Amino acid sequence: MRLPEVGCSLPRRLFVKKIQKMLLEVKMLLRFGTSNHLSVREYQELSLVATPLKGSLEGLLQSSDTADQSKAFSTVPVVAIYGANAAGKSTILRALEFFVTAIKESQNGSSSRQGTPYQPFLLDENSRNSVSRYDADFVIDGIRYHYGFTLDGKIVHSEWLFSFPAGSQRQVRSILFHRDAADESSFYFGKSLKGDNKRISKLTRNNSLFLSSAAQNAHSQLSKIYDYFSIGFSQRLETVSDNASISEQMFAYFGADKAQRKRAMNFMQAADIGIADVEFSKKAPGKKTQLLIQEFENIFTKHFSDFSFPESYETNEAKILHYGEYAKYYPIALEYESSGTKALLQILGPVFTKLENGGTLIVDELNIALHPLVSHELIKLFSSPETNPGRAQLIFTTHDTNILTSGLLRRDQIWFVEKDGTGSTCLYPLSSIKIRQNDNFEKGYIEGRFGAIPMFGLNKYNYKNLDSLSKEGDK
């Protein structure tokens, strides 16, 4: 399936405009690491920095537009994570989600008495009571940063932010701030961090992050770090099946942005799904729901006189316009669409938003309900500078092994997870395994040469043996 350039790529004028903007605003993730999070016990790292490999460098992202490219990082725009069920693919993505959510919400969350949303490895006694670690390297406006924190179920034990200023002859680390709960003074602020740091540190609870607190208190220098995570990251870790929720999601992306909707619909048309457009209308709640709302408002007004209510309880309802007889469009309710169409409609909004504005899109099970060729085209959008002027990055898990032989991904873009004998998740790239460039990656993976596949042990037991073992276990 070949998608037309019109609609899927930005118009030439917008493309040039976006590139000029990116000269000043470069934002991308270099790596993320975590330890003691759910099935991850030992420290595991996901790197998006390109590995020196033989072959084409086409499609790699540059972290800097300066003339001296020796100071730039080449990063991959797409990373795919493979592994058996329950091996920890989703855990890696959820650890990254935990990291981003803590930055966004820890300061305006619960009180210090309620601790932290601690999620340790539970299969040994030591890990249950040890700190969890989360850290990342990223680039903003050509400057590399390293940020991270550790915590347990009660408090944040440490937090740090370093920068590696551009233009220096060597990679010199500049400490912006460091926090250690075991230290009596607790906070250290570097000379390069301006602002009302001491006052904000006193407002920071022991179970929240200073970075989150700084953003809540309008710290100009740290707010751009906060914004990178709070605005630049989008997660799609669960597929929504409720039609009303899907309609609201679609309206959020396509309701007011006609250009964005047009790109998405062009993609749908190129995928030969028979969809021409989408339209939205307001839907009032039913009579029973209206009576419940009125009763609820009366109760609250009686006890809380200053409580404010929404002006309207109308929701946005999406209908899909299909091509029909005589080239007419016919609106079809969302409930009659297939699960694959719904899945594609849900993901296209985040995809085209990231392609235009930059940032990182995290998707669990990209292949769910989507045809492999549709998934491949989504990957191509992120891999081409023309369709990805914002230098967006896509990180996803999948079981679609066709991607491995499609030529879409380099070896450093293919990652695997598997569990060791203790139930702990290990993460590693295909580029760490010695193979030939012309090897069939899909065949090698299915045959178990790279690990990260289910091991049924059927060489030892046939199905009759398994059936008899099951019966013995039931006794």
UniProtKB/TrEMBL annotation:
InterPro entries: ATPase_AAA_core, P-loop_NTPase. GO terms for molecular function: ATP binding; ATP hydrolysis activity. Residues 78-404 form the ATPase AAA-type core domain. This is ATPase AAA-type core domain-containing protein. The lineage of its organism: Bacteria, Pseudomonadati, Pseudomonadota, Gammaproteobacteria, Pseudomonadales.
